[in-house]
Amino acid sequence: MLKEVIYHRPKDNYAYVCTNNLLHIQIRTKRDDVKQVTLIYGDPYNWSQKEWQTAAKKMKKSGSDQLFDYWVVSVKPALKRLRYGFLLEDEQESICFTEKGFYSVPPLDDTGYYFCFPFMNPIDIFRAPDWVKNTVWYQIFPERFANGNPKNDPEGALPWGSADPSPSNFFGGDMEGVIDRIPYLKELGISGIYFTPIFKAYSNHKYDTIDYLEIDPQFGTKETFKELIRVCHQNGIKVMLDAVFNHSGFYFPQFQDVLENGETSRFKDWFHTHEFPLVTEPQPNYDVFAFTPFMPKLNTENPEVKEYLLEVGRYWVREFDIDGWRLDVANEVDHAFWRDFRKEVKRIKPDLYILGEIWHDAMPWLRGEQFDAVMNYPFTTNILNLFAKQTITVKEFVENMTGVIHMYPQPVNEVAFNLVGSHDTPRILTECQEDVDRVKQIYTLLLTYSGSPCIYYGDEIGLTGTMDPGCRKCMEWDKERQNTDLFQHIQKLIQLRKQYPLLANEGELSFIYSEEQKNLLAFTKSNEEKMILVLLNTGKDHIHYKLPAHLQNKPAKNLWNQRKVSNFKLPGNGFMIVEF
Predict the structure, then answer these.
(1) How does residue 551 score in pLDDT terms, banded at 50, 70 and 90?
(2) What separation in angstroms does the CA of 449 have from each of 193, 416, 482, 486, 520?
(3) Residues forming a β-bridge with 238
(4) CB 174 within 8 A of CB 145
(5) Cα–Cα distance measured from residue 536 to residue 204, given in angstroms and rounded to the nearest whole number
(6) Using an 8 Å Cβ cutoff, are 83 and 44 in contact?
């Protein structure tokens, strides 16, 4: 047994409490090295005849990545406290793993050897809004979705869709255009809209904020926005806004004051300045986002800056009843700011969704005191690599996704913001070399997987486009130029997700992999009563899927056509969604 690989810590994704007071415990071992793991546990104060009283519960192997096996178990301590260790067995030996190391038999003379979960304090439980688990998001880039009021078009706006998108052109998309198209979103099945920034800014993308407390005039007025919120809520659609608290725009008045007055500016400490006067060339002498001098980094540790931005967070929740904040470049802002931000906005609306843009392992932000979720780009990467770029095998996909799943506690995974494209990535149809069947498979996976899925505007009707700015085309509203077959495919998947909770966030997700059918991606979503099997043939040839032994001879229904099924034959790039 390779002891140096065995890992556990009584924190984060390795030990956490769920809202039903179950304590989930996870341990990691070398892949295919350990045959069985058993949790040895008990109340730290339960003693008899100078010996600690323990119980034992076998752990379940919940998955494997390229290097490790993951084992999980749930227990419900009667008095909300626990000491525990692990009994690990292979074919040669049995050892007890504790916080103090390894022992040939479990030491029962002192609980100090063992891992400690001191108390299951309710305030420490990760709590994200329940509604997010059943939300299907639609991301709108407001400048390019729909032009409902040509009177507020910016100067020089082009006729809708008359040119390719560029970093500097405008087409007049606005709030009234979104209001006009709410019936379309209802028809698709959308229950949440994520808007990229709508605040006053210089660019067409609006990530260079000029005024955080004003809507950009090209999008409409605050009254228009209130009407948009009202119509959305009336139609069961939540609204999430995008905020850039890491940096402002170049024309942010406070930054302009520093440019003009230098060291005498009362706002000089609002930014990370290195020297005065400020210069933009050959490179800025102040901290910026990436390398652009037009996005100066805000000093969120400065009390004035902090209070200004916290009021921004409060204002749009308090005055407009928005349902969520998506936070741009969230990992470059200090943790102390985000802790206070959460307290302030949740005080106004406890079920507000707080989503951070973080592209890597985000556990430090997901401990319940900062964000509810992050944009799940590891999920995105693996889907694109398997279906679009075809650079990994099904086996590698399963291993990679198993690693992603075990990065976070289960309650975090249930509200993860899962996406396959955005304003920052090439269009999904373009990524798939315009192979619509592969796009259908990608959406089949996205909309039957755990988490909170998001569709980038226009992807559902087959818009194409390369990396920014190519992915920011005007929405195509001419039905003759829409891929209505793709629209109907996604629409049906959303309906099934709503109709069958197992396709959303009920039950347990498990991958099934067979070396005999290397091109078949299979996973189940199951609870104590039912199981749904999702099959995706990633190859071009037909596959006849052989059911696992525990599913053979059980009644099965193809949820796509609501017919009984006994023949599990999938065409190339085909799929099946089957309920047992």
Answers:
(1) confident
(2) 19, 11, 26, 19, 16
(3) 192
(4) no
(5) 39
(6) yes
**Helical pair 222-234 and 303-320, crossing angle rounded to 10 deg:** 60
Domains and their CATH numbers in the chain = 3-124 (2.60.40.10), 247-299 (3.90.400.10), 508-579 (2.60.40.1180)
Q: Token pair for residue 153?
A: 């078009």
Distinct helix (H) and strand (E) counts, the chain: 12, 30
Residue with tokens 């002192």: 110
Name the β-bridge partners of 47: 52
| DSSP H or E segment with residue 429 | helix 428-431
Give the C-alpha separation, 324 to 375, whole Å: 13
The answer to whether the beta carbons of residues 176 and 149 sit under 8 Å apart is: yes
281 is a catalytic site residue: no
Residue 19, pLDDT > 90, answer: no
337, containing H or E segment: helix 335-348
What's the CA gap between 466 and 449, in Å, rounded? 26
pTM score: 0.95
Quick one: three-class SS letters along 111-151? Answer: HHHCEEECCCCHHHCCCCCHHHHHCCEEEECHHHCCCCCHH
Q: How far apart are CA 173 and CA 218, in angstroms?
A: 8
Closest CA to 152 of 173, 169, 131, 133: 173
- 185, 197, 200: which is closest to 231 by C-alpha? 185
Is the preceding omega at residue 277 within 30 degrees of 0, hence cis?
A: yes
State the chain's maximal CA–CA distance in angstroms.
86
Q: Can you read off the two tokens belonging to residue 336?
A: 């102390």
Q: Of 335, 319, 357, whose CA–CA distance to 207 is shortest? A: 357
**pLDDT > 90 fraction of the chain, expressed in percent and rounded:** 96
* Active-site pick, 69, 143, 174, 357: 357
Q: 325: part of which helix (H) or strand (E)?
A: strand 324-327
Cis bond upstream, residue 282 (ω within 30)? yes
Residue 328 bears catalytic tag: yes
- The string over 140-179, giving b where at least 16 C-beta atoms fall within 10 Å of a residue's C-beta and e elsewhere, is bbbbbbbbbbeebbbeebeebbeeebeeebbbbbbbbbbb
Bridge partners (DSSP) listed for residue 27: 71
> If you search the block for the tokens 């486009």, which residue do you land on?
465
Give me the pLDDT at residue 550, please. 85
For residue 549, is pLDDT > 90? no
- Name the DSSP letter for residue 439: H
Q: How many of the other CB atoms lie within 10 Å of CB of 118? A: 11
Is 538 within 8 Å of 544 (Cβ atoms)?
no
Tokens of 458: 């226009």
Q: State mean pLDDT over 456-472.
A: 97
How far apart are the C-alpha atoms of 324 and 319, rounded to whole Å? Answer: 13
Residue with tokens 């090439």: 426
Q: Which of 328, 340, 372, 431 is catalytic?
A: 328
Sequence-ordered strand ranges (E) for 335-451 = 353-356, 373-374, 417-419
How far apart CA 499 and CA 493 sit, in angstroms, is 10
Query: What single-letter amino acid sits at 3?
Result: K
**What SS3 class is residue 54?**
coil
Strands (E), 370-413: 373-374
Number of neighbours of residue 190 by Cβ within 10 angstroms: 24
